[in-house]
Amino acid sequence: MLKIGDFSKLSRISIRMLRHYDQIGLLIPASTDPFTGYRYYSETQLPVAGRIAALKDMGFGLTAIAELLKNYHDPEALKQYLEIKQLEVQEQAEEAKRRLQLLDTAIRRLGKDELMMNYDVTKKIMPKRYVASVRMVIPAYHQEHILWNTLYKETAAMNLQEEEPCCGLALFLDEGFSDGEVDVEIQLQVKGTYKDTEHVKFKTVDAFEIASATYQGSYEKITEVNEAVAKWLCDNGYEISGPSFCIYHVSPAQTQNPEELVTEVCYPIKQK
Fold first, then answer.
1. Rounded to whole angstroms, how far apart are CA atoms 189 and 203?
2. Phi-psi sector, 78: left (phi>0), alpha (psi -120 to 50), beta
3. Pick from 43, 39, 52, 42: which is nearest to 13 by CA?
4. Distance between alpha carbon 148 and the CA centroid of its chain, in Å?
5. Residue 198 confidence class, pLDDT cut points 50, 70, 90
6. Cβ distance 26 to 65 under 8 Å?
7. Contact 162/189 with Cβ under 8 angstroms?
8. Of the N and C termini of the chain, which has fewer Cβ atoms inside 10 Å?
9. Cβ pair 36, 24 in contact under 8 A
């Protein structure tokens, strides 16, 4: 039998945490002296302590670890738990990467006039178009690729003929900004006629008037662009008359460098 201090050294788990694990029933000592209250552990409990430490390092909470230990000798059940956690960690890594990009952009722009950059807002007519369209509710704005992947997958055998210049855009159909579960429609301008698939619908979109501003670089600049559009609307007596959309002149599919992206932010408008 091992005293708690010796077990702590061998398992590399602090005495404080071992006492906590005992209290919550996660790792109960093999025996406890009824008079002194001293805890004693068995050498056979070291592998269990090692599993707890490994699962904590993977990011599992103590409640989840207790459940995992019950299924530790069931490879299939354990695999399912680990795969779910793997997806969760991947999502966290993507979010951390996005935040690092935001920080990097903010640091590089400190002290530069770019923060005060003026964007030219233009009033024009969005022409009548025949488009391939996919509309879905997706988990977040940055997962728009789900829609494009669906479009290209379901039309792969159609030999779609894209208009030149091709107008690929994404419409944001929620009433306001959404933190999750966003309603987005993508449209790809094509020529010819085609039959609808499960998710891809072909339709004609009539012409309408828009105010737009084009910027180059990462998506984080869109707030400044929106401010420029809002000022233009106020100064010129217009109001927004429909969902906003982005036209991708240089899209993420064409470049891996965020600074090479070219996006046109558009708002349907009408006179007040």
1. 10
2. alpha
3. 52
4. 16
5. very high
6. yes
7. yes
8. C
9. no
